[in-house]
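fwd from M.: "can u put these together and see what the complex looks like"

so here's what she sent:
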Amino acid sequence: MFSFTKEQKVYDISGVSIGGQPGMYPTVLFGGVFFKGEPDFEDAKKHLRVMLELSTRTGTPTIPDFFIRKVEYIDPIISFIEKNLPHKHPFSVDIIEPTIKIETLQTLAEKKLLFRTIYNSIHVGITREEQESLKKFTPEMVIVVAFNPKDSSPDGKIEVLENGAHLTERGLLDIARGIGFEKILIDTAALAPGENSGAALAAIPVIKEEYGLPTGCAIHNVVEKSKWLNDYPFAKKTVDVASNCSIPLFGGDYALFGPVQNAELVVPLIAWQDILVSEYTENYFGICPVAFHPRRKLLK
Amino acid sequence: MTEEYYPWGGEFTACSPHGCIAVVLLNIQYTPPKDVAIYGPLKTENIGVEKIVANTISNPFIRFLVVCGDDIRGHRSGSSLLALHKNGIDANHRIIDAPGAIPYIENLKEDAIKRFQKQLSVVNLIGVQEKEKIDATIAQCMKKLPPSYGEPYIAIRIKPESSVSLTDKRALHSKIVLNYLGKVQERGE
């Protein structure tokens, strides 16, 4: 459990705060809403309701992360967000295809949803068209992925943030700020086992001390890619859920924990972990947890 | 020949050591005939492509690379692999004309890529899902009985320059130090 010398930024999006010294704000959890084939909105609605109820009960903030993989799904998914998420609740959009990113931005702007949107994400593959589109329609917050294909160490991650590691003209932080983003989250890019997977965790305190920016990652991806765990299906689920604990332990601010269906397991687990972190950091560093922190909410 | 023969590891199945075909699977549930050399899925347009290059050139008997199934959305890993074979990389290590999001080859030397281009012929079956068609293409390649390319090429990973040796007992990283309570600060402050 850490405390940082560098001033730690806290960013708010529609009432959810991300960042700060460990123990002050609860870890924010992003639950993935993935649709295989045609979107099953009834199922998504059910799981989102469960996740948001758990948030209210525990104090651990949750944000749905919508994966949009086809142009024809943009409108239905955004309509679903408008109708089914609580008024003003933040959400993120996770899109790989650059053309879909651009169309989605336009739709979000038309529906006046950009103030609730976290753009997931900017990385070294950002195109000029995407940058232009983001300048025109700038979401409230962005996740910048510090993936460096050459160097997966914390230094390599800092290199892409700082100067683009010759993959982009400028550093990713410069690009994000140049677009107009003021609220920047860093994703330390968890890679597969065998690809320096532990660096995603080690990079959290390094990046927080370097920039003071809210930092996290999708560490559960490492579990998904640990094929040997398929021989231990019961343990695999436990490992997948438990992997998220490492993020607050390393001083991180948020976790992309995988499918929203896992919320019932992950949300209480992270509330528990945040209580441990908060107890220590208040005792030794004098960091007071905010009023809605799980420690205040759950410990009577 | 066991899977250890392929030095870069990965999610693949090694079959016949003297088989002349490697099969790249893109979003497809397909098991090639057991007389191919190796087969496995491709997911990413950078690290995934690098592994395919390194693992195929390490077995000189592999002369065909059959790429089948539907390309990975956004990543366009299959098309990026084809672009690497056709065009190589530019001065920034980007695969020339690759359509993927982050198509960079950072861990292989140019020689390895040249060897890949010379040793292997690529058979583009992107968009093909039918087992019969893929089986037939594999059978045609096998009939050609291509000779071995010669010596294996064992690609060495280009090491990042950032590895450091620290003497601090509580060192987390070269940029930061941690005191006994867990207070982090920049090294040298």
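replying to her w this: The beta strands of chain B are 13-14, 21-26, 38-41, 64-69, 121-126, 176-178, 183-186.
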